[in-house]
Amino acid sequence: xxxxxxxxxxxxxxxxxxxxxxxxxxxxxxxxxxxxxxxxxxxxxxxxxxxxxxxxxxxxxxxxxxxxxxxxxxxxxxxxxxxxxxxxxxxxxxxxxxxxxxxxxxxxxxxxxxxxxxxxxxxxxxxxxxxxxxxxxxxxxxxxxxxxxxxxxxxxxxxxxxxxxxxxxxxxxxxxxxxxxxxxxxxxxxxxxxxxxxxxxxxxxxxxxxxxxxxxxxxxxxxxxxxxxxxxxxxxxxxxxxxxxxxxxxxxxxxxxxxxxxxxxxxxxxxxxxxxxxxxxxxxxxxxxxx
Amino acid sequence: xxxxxxxxxxxxxxxxxxxxxxxxxxxxxxxxxxxxxxxxxxxxxxxxxxxxxxxxxxxxxxxxxxxxxxxxxxxxxxxxxxxxxxxxxxxxxxxxxxxxxxxxxxxxxxxxxxxxxxxxxxxxxxxxxxxxxxxxxxxxxxxxxxxxxxxxxxxxxxxxxxxxxxxxxxxxxxxxxxxxxxxxxxxxxxxxxxxxxxxxxxxxxxxxxxxxxxxxxxxxxxxxxxxxxxxxxxxxxxxxxxxxxxxxxxxxxxxxxxxxxxxxxxxxxxxxxxxxxxxxxxxxxxxxxxxxxxxxxxxxxxxxx
Lengths: 291, 305
Prior knowledge:
The complex is a heterodimer of chains A (291) and B (305).
Chain A: E1 4-13, E2 16-26, E3 31-35, H1 42-49, E4 56-61, H2 70-73, E5 77-80, H3 92-102, H4 108-116, H5 131-143, E6 149-153, H6 161-175, E7 181-185, H7 189-192, E8 198-203, E9 206-212, H8 213-219, E10 220-225, H9 230-234, E11 240-244, E12 247-253, H10 257-261, E13 264-267, H11 271-280, H12 282-290
Chain B: H1 3-13, H2 22-33, H3 36-57, H4 59-67, H5 71-104, H6 107-110, H7 114-117, H8 124-164, H9 170-175, H10 178-195, H11 197-209, H12 214-233, H13 237-253, H14 272-276, H15 279-301
């Protein structure tokens, strides 16, 4: 069973179309990065998946309709909406008691073991914790839940580099196994490139690019062109060209790597560079959509 | 899904799953968040007791004054501080209930914590009903305990003071028969809570709906409609309806005879059969249920603000 299946998913807010016919199929055991500019529809898509908003079209999450059965679905799905949603009046022990009291898959000992490795005291209120500690607390709660799908919407927004790195390291080392699925959106794309198995670009409510990281690595190549061969390289139809320190850097989709190697230095591009290329280039959009 | 079946399915879903009690824990979390539901009545009880202590200091003079009165007047004079204590704590409870309901479904959207609550397997029905349990169950229970404890302390202090001055404390206990008065208190709290059900329902509905200034949305429309009716039709149907809703239970649930000077059995004042036959009671409960259903429906689709 696919973890998430969507066909023709649409959502409008008044006259604004937030999701414009999304088809999606996320298998279990993947870590999917959902990447898009502000207002692209990422959060709307995640909210639909989490049963927080109604939508048009077909959507099944773990075989269930999220809008009709959010409370049931949440036994198998966890999410961190962003760093600031833990209630500020709550004390750490209260959060543990409450989640233990309402969640059938919560392993309290696991959460406490995780908290023991942090500076967080059980008597502290959430409002007394730093932003990074609140995220640690939320992560401790989430990681102690034996869920099938974890949704992270900008989970590290506003955190410093150390907390961000620790967040993803913990997630990957202590939580992720191949029976779980993780969907993550973030603007710090480069920091999660290494942990993703799949990525998806979304813009104006549509999926612009959807590929696995293996495909990404074989499909896209970044070429730092030797100055005298720029014209030759352009003939191979790069999807994007930019100037860095006076040298041309071109991005190719499905180009022959051996040919490229004769024109300069070939690398796998960063997701961030591909993102910029796809989002700024009109032809890139159509190529991506056709993929 | 009903609250009961939610726990049952949680139990049967998987061997590794632990038993959960979403309703119970949701009520507990409300009390954690809103400590005013027990602190405010306790503070008022403390003030009442402080006042009573000062009164006791003047006890010898008071006793002298009392002996000049006839037995019925003596009885009323002795019972008055007890009744005032109960009223003060009870009114505090109503104010706390009003403000609790006003914030119950509004604050969680305002501070975005609704996104955390909704990330847990707790239905909107459980969430809203657990919040409704505060004014409908928790607060009346807290008020009962606080008022009875206050009365007992007052009786104890009064008896001690009377014993110290060599007087008989019997009149104190006969003027405020604590067991019977506690039964009257339970009855009073129940009839009041049921009578106010549509008010709690309305304020919680507004709380789940308003995007800002929930207090204005809760208070101004009823008042505005009364004023509009008065101006447009020169009638006061709505304002008398409002007045009936605020005070009606006193007439419907008790036999009041303000001219009676008899010291009767306090239990004879209770009119449960008449109260249960009052259409206003059942109409209010139906309206309240409808408003709470509306709040549940709104909580499902309302987003953080």
